[in-house]
Structure formats: C-alpha cells, structure tokens
Amino acid sequence: MKYLDKHHQVIDDTEQKKAAEAQATAALEKPVESLIKKEVAKQPSVVKKKHNFNISIGSVSLTAKMLFMDNLSTMLKAGLSLAPALRTLKSEIKSKYLHTVLDYLHDRVENGETLSKGMAQYPKVFPEMIIATVEVGENTGMLSDSLGHLASILKAQKKLRSKIIGAMIYPMIVLMALIGVSIMLSLFVFPNLVILFTEAGVELPFVLRAVNAINYVLRTYTWYIIGGFIAFIILFRYVFKLPKPKLLWHTLIIRIPFLGKFITELNLTRFGGNLFALLSAGLPIVKSMQITAKTLKNTRYRKEIIIMAEELEKGVSLGKSMEKRPAFFPTFIVQLANVGETTGELESVLQKVSEYYEERVDNVLTNMSSIIEPFLLIIVAVAVGFLAVSVITPMYELTLSFAE
C-alpha cells in the first residue's frame, strides 16, 4: 500500500506487510506441526519392519504345515484377504518357530510382496513343490484351491508316515526287549556264575569264558568303545551324504527282494501324487518333473526323473521315457501314461497311479506285523535258546563237579 509521510514522500509498505504475514504464518505453523508429529507418533508405524530372523534354524512338523495350509485355504475361501488370514493364524499357532515364520510372511504380504516369495526365504519349512504350487495359485487367482490341494498332499504324507512308524513299533519293541534281557544277564547273572565256578575251582565253560571276556573288554575300554561307536555313526552319516555313495546305497536298496519292492512302490506313490498336484496347479510338465524329483527320498529315482525331464524337454513323451526304465516304472504305469497322453487325461492317470500304489503300500504296512512275525519268532526262539543254554549248561556242569 502506498501513502505519503509527513515530508510528503511516497512510501510503499507492501513488502514489509508480506514479510510480517509470513512470520506470523510460520509462528502459527510451528505448533501445528508439533501437534501433527505428536499424533503421528501415537499412531502405529507403517514402515517396513526389518527382520533379523535366522531362517536356517528351526523346524516345523508335517502336521503343523498341513494344518496351516488347510486353515489358510479355508479362510481364503470364506472371503478373508491374505494378510488378515495370516494374522489370525499367527495368533493361534503354538509352535514358536512357525509363529516367527508367519510373522515374517504377514509383514511381507502387507508390504506388497507375494506369499510365494516370502515362503522362498524358508526352504526348510516350505519345499520347492509348495512354493511352486502357491506361485501358480497366485498367478491364476486360485490360491485357496492350490493351498487346499497342498493340504491334501501333506495329509496323505502324514498318514503314510504314521503307518510306517506304527508298523515298525512291534518289531522294535521285541528287539529292544531281547537286547535288554541279554544286557541284564551279562551284567548281573553271568558274573555271579563266574564267581561260583572260580570259588569251586571248576574250569569255566565256553559260554561263561566268552561272556567274561566281553564284560572285561566293555568295562576296561568303555570310553574307547563309546567314542568309536559315535565316530562310526558320524563317519557313516557323512559318507552316505556324499552324492556317489548315497546313490550307490539307494540303488542297492531297490534291488533287495522284499524291501526294494516296497521302496519302489513308495516312490511311485509320491511320484504320481506330486506330479499330479503340480500339473493340476498349472505348471508345465518339465518344471513339474524337476520339482517332483526333489520331493523323492530315493536319490536313484530322483536322478532318473531329472534325466526324464531333460528328455521331455527335447520332445520325448512321458510314456516313452518311462519305457526306457523298466526297473523303475512297471509296464502298468507305462501303458497308463501312454493312454493319458493320447487322450489328454494325463493328470487323472497320474492320480490313479498314486492311489493304486498308495493302496498297495497301505496293505503292506497293515500286514507288516503278520509278515515280520515269523522272522521275529525265529529270532526270539534262537535268542531264548541261547540264553537258556548259557545259564543251564554252566549250572549243570557245576552240579556235576560237586557230585564228583
């Protein structure tokens, strides 16, 4: 604004007023800014969390993974979004390590990452088959179906594992009882018999001499024997973790008459089921074969399936590739694979193969006690007979020495 002062000179105070207004505005803004900062500080932080998890430490049981997949699938089908579903599951998990994993997955999903990328940071918890299936479900918009399918696979694996453990309990109890009785006799019964023979001045029988020598060695070199046993186990585990010895060992196991057939059917069950799951999820067959190979425990089967994946990549059909390996894939499977590829129903054929061999494995495990029982009876009879002779013969000879 322009005006005349008392000396009749023109004065313009526009700039001064602007400066004064700016200072007043700044003075008003400062308390407002401080208030805003205080309110923001009260609000929960939305900044990405930095996790320092050691992703190589810890383990999650098969049951926990199965329940996680099943519950997450159910929540997504009910209309709940992924992040809230993970948060809800996290609050219900009892396993500390799985709680840590879900906490990480929840934060990654909230920050815009996919679930499969978060799972890839925990390869010991989520194998490649799970990650690949989840990734396909995310890309196709059918994540809930993919998770439900994975839950079914894990449930079948858990059921099979439980049956194997249940079938082995009976023979293990019998063998442990035999070992326990033998140790008790060696430590408490036979030493007393040795004292009786020594005091009577009678020559020790062969059985007592052998047991006495074994007891002497065990008592004298106890720590050396324990150390050697531990070293042997460590060396054995180390050697058979190497690729070539492990491959040789797994090849020999397949050729053992009864055990080899059982292991073959077990691997075919997992091969058919996992390949069916991956193909149903939308993965190409070559990638599905490569992932399926990694899910098999037997390294010989794993190697053959990886080679088959390379042949499929070159244009060879699955049936032809199986036909080259009659020791690993029976004619029955080859014929079904050819029919499935011809009719375009390969997925359903693989599902039938998995169900067929799963039933065979189930029958073997159900009748395991009946199969092993005759062998156990023979072992028990021999062991009891040996122990009886070991106790009765020295007593009989001691009685004869007194009679003389």
Describe what you observe in this structure.
The structure is a single chain. By secondary structure, the protein is mostly helical. Among the domains are: 62-153, Type II secretion system (T2SS), domain F (Receptor-associated Protein, Up-down Bundle); 247-366, Type II secretion system (T2SS), domain F (Receptor-associated Protein). It contains 17 helices and 2 strands. It has a two-stranded antiparallel ribbon. A hairpin with a 5-residue loop joins strand 1 (2-4) and strand 2 (10-12). The longest helix is centred in the middle third of the chain and has 58 residues, at 143-200. The chain is elongated, with a radius of gyration of 36 Å. Mean pLDDT is 78; it is low at 2-11 and 24-56.
Write a brief structural summary.
The chain has 404 residues and is an all-alpha fold. Among the domains are: 62-153, Receptor-associated Protein (Up-down Bundle), CATH 1.20.81.30; 247-366, Receptor-associated Protein (Up-down Bundle), CATH 1.20.81.30.
Shape: elongated
Percent range of helical residues: over 70%
Strand order of the largest sheet: 1-2
Rg measurement, Å: 36 Å
Annotation, overall tally of beta strands: 2
The CATH H-level homologous superfamily of the domain at 247-366: Type II secretion system (T2SS), domain F
The H/E string reads EEHHHHHHHHHHHHHHHHH
Number of helices: 17
Secondary structure elements and their pairing?
Layout: E1 2-4, E2 10-12, H1 14-42, H2 62-77, H3 82-92, H4 96-110, H5 115-119, H6 128-140, H7 143-200, H8 206-220, H9 222-239, H10 243-255, H11 257-280, H12 285-295, H13 299-313, H14 318-323, H15 331-343, H16 346-366, H17 368-403
Antiparallel strand pairs: 1-2
